[in-house]
Each structure stands twice: as structure tokens, then as C-alpha cells.
Design goal:
Low-confidence stretches: 207-211
Mean pLDDT: 94
Helix content: 55-70%
Strand content: 5-15%
Number of domains: 2
CATH architecture of the largest domain: Up-down Bundle
Shape: globular
CATH class of the largest domain: Mainly Alpha
Radius of gyration: 17 Å
Length: 211
């Protein structure tokens, strides 16, 4: 039995965590939680006080938040080659774009979806994420040099986490599209681990519908 358990729901950011697990190639167990009382139950909130998914338990270690889960797994299983060497220039870029995704991208998309997008200069200056247009232009600029992956020629945890956000943004219209996004998303979603992860979560969707 594996000492890794992923608590997730197929209609959640848990899809990102599953993809990351599939990229590492390590065995793990899955516990599917339904939205509502099950996710808010005291037993689960002892693991994740927010009552949200995903949560990853590795032995006695508990990790919540997708960016943290991706970063942890990359470091815990270095043979998968999902993070640059510590201290390298690439490692700096790795942290930069992981935190950009968890901070600016997540906040900008959420704020815009609620109609809080910051367009005037004063609001733009006060909001750490700026606004959705600037965030989108930043991602477009990152990919405009024709790079294969977000850090260059090497696939990493950044592509799992930030790449998923770009893919979802295009699919659901929550992120303005750019010509650089389509080829990049198609490339990362053709990966065997991405396909396996999607198939696993898609197979759980009927269970969600029947509940």
C-alpha cells in the first residue's frame, strides 16, 4: 500500500495534483470527497482546515494548496526531473513563475470573474495582481520567444501548475486567449501523464453526477 494519499474531487484543482503525481510516477491512493458535508467533516478538516481539496498526505506530512503540492512532489521525487537544480538560474525562474501562478494569476482570474477587475491606475497600483489583462500579457510575453515549455526546453512542475491554469482559462473563457497559448497547451496536454490523469478524473465524473 502506498504511503501517499490524494484527497480530491474530479471537479476541482485536484486535477492538477493528480497530474503532478502521474508525472512523478510514484504510486498513490485516491480518496474522492464530495462537496458539502463530507468535505467539511471534522475528520477531513483535521487535515485541511479550509475544507477544500486537494490535500496530499505523504506519510506524516500534510500538504495543501496546489502550488505547494507540486513543489513538494518535485523535491520529494527528484528522479522525475520536475524541478531545476537548487541555486541555478533556472531554479530562480521556477520559483518566480510558480508564485506568479499562485498569486497574480489566481487572484486576477478570480477578481475578474466577480467583476472586481482593476482598470483604473489607483486600483491597479494597490492590487498585487494588477489586472487580468496585464497578467495575460505577461504570460503571452513569456511564451512569445517560441520556447517549448515555461522554463525553456525542459518540462517542469511549473508547466503542470501554471500550464493547467492557462489550459483551463482557454477552456472556460476565464483567461483572455493569446496566439501563443494554443500550441503550448496542446503540447503539454499530449504528455502521457497528463492524459492518464485526465482519464482517471474523467472516469470519476459519473460518480459525481450520481451523488
Amino acid at each position: 500500500m502506498s504511503d501517499i494519499t490524494l484527497y480530491t474531487n474530479p471537479m476541482s484543482r485536484g486535477r492538477i495534483a493528480r497530474w503532478m503525481l502521474e508525472e512523478t510516477g510514484v504510486p498513490y491512493q485516491t480518496e474522492v470527497l464530495q462537496y458539502g458535508p463530507e468535505m467539511k467533516a471534522p475528520t477531513y478538516r483535521a487535515l485541511n482546515p479550509m475544507g477544500k481539496v486537494p490535500t496530499l498526505v505523504h506519510g506524516k506530512t500534510i500538504i495543501t494548496e496546489c502550488a505547494a503540492i507540486c513543489t513538494y512532489l518535485a523535491d520529494a521525487f527528484p528522479k522525475a526531473g520536475l524541478a531545476p537544480e537548487p541555486g541555478s538560474n533556472a531554479r530562480g525562474a521556477y520559483y518566480r513563475w510558480l508564485f506568479f501562478a499562485a498569486g497574480q494569476v489566481e487572484a486576477a482570474v478570480t477578481a475578474a470573474s466577480f467583476g472586481f477587475d482593476t482598470q483604473d491606475e489607483q486600483s491597479f497600483g494597490r492590487a498585487g495582481w494588477g489586472n487580468l489583462e496585464t497578467v495575460t500579457d505577461t504570460l503571452d510575453g513569456l511564451l512569445s520567444d517560441g520556447r517549448t515549455y515555461l522554463l525553456g526546453d525542459t518540462f517542469s512542475a511549473v508547466d503542470v501548475y501554471l500550464g493547467s491554469q492557462i489550459a483551463w482559462g482557454r477552456e472556460f473563457g476565464s483567461l483572455p486567449d493569446r496566439t501563443t497559448f494554443g500550441p503550448y497547451v496542446a503540447r503539454i496536454m499530449r504528455r502521457d501523464a497528463a492524459i492518464r490523469a485526465q482519464d482517471m478524473d474523467n472516469a470519476l465524473m459519473p460518480q459525481q453526477d450520481e451523488s
